[in-house]
Amino acid sequence: MNDLPDCPQCQSSNVYEDASLLVCPECGHEWSLSAEASPAGPQFRDANGATLSDGDTVTVIKDLKIKGTSQVVKVGTKVKNIRLTEGDHDIDCRIDGIGAMKLKSEFVRKS
Predict the structure, then answer these.
(1) Under 8 Å CB-to-CB from 97, ≥6 apart: which residues?
(2) Which residue would you say has higher pLDDT here, 106 or 11?
(3) Whose CA is closest to 108, among 52, 57, 61, 50?
(4) Would the pTM count as exceeding 0.85?
(5) What residue ranges in 1-111 does DSSP mark as E strands?
(6) Which residues lie across from 94 on neighbouring strands?
């Protein structure tokens, strides 16, 4: 019997081992068995310490000047459907009336 875990992407039970990785032949997803024990990647937290994830809605907690323009992102602006990225500015989003921009998670709170 196959005592390996199901694929985390497609839930297929046709998983096999390849060296130190587990591989799903149906969707092609590869992962390590140790990765299941600990969450992969960094944890992103807002100004209050709540964990952020892709697709969350956040609220800006401080007026933010936009570099190179005279525009400002005002306190209380809601930003929907965020994407998290690694780097100094870790939130990639689109703000109504302004457009695409990157924000720091320390200047937002989860809504």
Answers:
(1) none
(2) 106
(3) 61
(4) no
(5) 16-18, 21-23, 30-32, 44-45, 51-52, 58-60, 64-65, 72-73, 78-79, 83-84, 91-95, 99-103, 108-110
(6) 100
